[in-house]
């Protein structure tokens, strides 16, 4: 059940020039609600006269034992910049959990490939952890413009086999994720999140090879409850709100032109 929490900021770690990892916990001491990979939260941006709506942030991970939520935040506009300036000991007003989740296959021998680009790696970490806990050995393919855009590599390595690609060749293989040699292997399921052109390319690759594929869309989700209609996505059954029907969709349900 979704709920509004005043969250105490335990730490705010700057990972690179534009991404921060915030770790937060309910100020009341109340136990966090159950959350699943793919879900997101909405953060109120306080003391910002030009930012009226909450900002959607993917659940990066959850430490159930310590009752701590991880949020990977990229500085894009005024709202996320202010969130990234939050200091340890301060509070954030957060609504969670929102959205749906990824679908893990029933067969434990299924070969999984999780592809993240930029800050789109955020839900892939949580999904990888859940996959590992459920008996899978996932492969991760992480992409960025350069080496400094590849985040949380040590965390990913805890849950599976990590591959990387950068556009300038400063780390991993040079090129886009769809150029990486790991794609020469056979996979049964692909999961991806990142820039839309990247996800469309991954979806095309999966469709051509008849591989099941789920994507986590990054549409502008202003309200989180399907009221503002900012995040509408065209699907095979008509237009739907990404915040309530997604953000995770099987590519078979999306009307994407390639």
Description:
- By secondary structure, this protein is an alpha/beta fold.
- It folds into 2 domains: 96 residues, Elongation Factor Tu (Ef-tu), domain 3, CATH 2.40.30; 107 residues, 3-Layer(aba) Sandwich (Rossmann fold).
- A 7-stranded mixed sheet has the order 10-9-8-7-11-12-15, sandwiched between helices. The chain has a 6-stranded antiparallel barrel with strand order 1-2-5-4-3-6.
- The longest helix is centred in the C-terminal third of the chain and has 13 residues.
- The protein is globular and about 50 Å long.
- The relative contact order is 0.14.
- The mean pLDDT is 93.
From the N-terminal CA to the C-terminal CA, the straight-line distance is: 37 Å
Mean pLDDT: 93
Q: Tell the overall outline.
A: globular
**Biggest sheet record:** 7 strands, mixed
CATH top level of the largest domain is Alpha Beta
Order of secondary-structure elements: EEEEEHEEHEHEEEHEEEHE
Strands side by side in the biggest sheet: 10-9-8-7-11-12-15
The portion of residues forming beta strands comes to: 25-35%
Compute the number of structural domains.
2
Strand segment count: 15
Number of helices, where a helix is a run of at least 4 consecutive DSSP H or I residues: 5
Helices and strands: which structural class? alpha/beta
Q: What is the C-alpha radius of gyration, as a whole number of Å?
A: 18 Å
pLDDT < 50 stretches: none
């Amino acid at each position: 059940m979704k709920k509004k929490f005043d969250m105490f900021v335990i730490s705010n770690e700057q990972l690179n020039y534009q991404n921060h990892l915030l770790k937060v916990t309910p100020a009341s001491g109340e136990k966090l609600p159950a959350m699943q990979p793919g879900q997101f939260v909405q953060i109120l941006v306080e003391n910002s006269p030009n930012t009226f709506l909450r900002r959607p942030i993917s659940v990066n991970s959850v430490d159930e034992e310590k009752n701590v939520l991880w949020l990977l935040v990229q500085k894009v506009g005024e709202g996320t910049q202010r969130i990234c300036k939050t200091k340890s000991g301060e509070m954030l007003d957060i609504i969670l959990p929102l959205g749906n989740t990824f679908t893990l296959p029933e067969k434990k021998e299924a070969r999984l490939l999780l592809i993240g680009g930029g800050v789109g790696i955020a839900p892939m970490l949580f999904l990888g952890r859940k996959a590992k806990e459920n008996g899978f050995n996932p492969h991760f393919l992480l992409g960025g413009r350069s080496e400094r855009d590849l985040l949380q590599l040590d965390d990913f390595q805890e849950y599976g086999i990590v591959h990387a690609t950068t556009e300038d060749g400063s780390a991993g293989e040079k090129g886009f994720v769809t150029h990486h040699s790991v794609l020469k292997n056979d996979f049964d399921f692909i999961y991806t999140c990142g820039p839309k052109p990247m996800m469309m390319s991954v979806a095309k690759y999966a469709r051509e090879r008849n591989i099941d594929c789920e994507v986590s869309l990054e549409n502008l989700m202003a309200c989180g409850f399907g009221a503002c209609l900012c995040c509408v996505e065209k699907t095979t059954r008509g237009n739907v709100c990404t915040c309530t029907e997604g953000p995770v969709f099987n590519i078979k349900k999306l009307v994407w032109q390639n």
